[in-house]
Input
Amino acid sequence: MWPLSLFFSHLYELYLELKDKGFQIIGISQDANLEDAKRFAERFGIKFPLVWDNKNAYTSRLEIPKMPTAFLVDRTGKIVAVHGGFTKLDEQLKEKILKLLGEEADE
Output
């Protein structure tokens, strides 16, 4: 499995586990054309909403350390954590998500 597909696979697993508690994922594609964005989503099995940002309207406002980057945003819109690169999302990030959702992480 490619690093990018592992990243999205783990992100989607986290979504399935926590979606009923209010966890949401929104992806942003910077592909030049919409068909490339659709092919990317299909190729990597992305099953969460994907916004097409070919003009960088959203991403130009963010400091993106590397691709892909995941931002953890609280209910007020504040960025509370950033995860950059192809590495598996770590347990600390999951703990932050659970805390924002008002739950304690499993011991």
Summary: The chain has one domain: 3-100. The chain has a mean pLDDT of 83. The chain is about 35% helix and 15% strand. The first helix runs from residue 3 to 18.
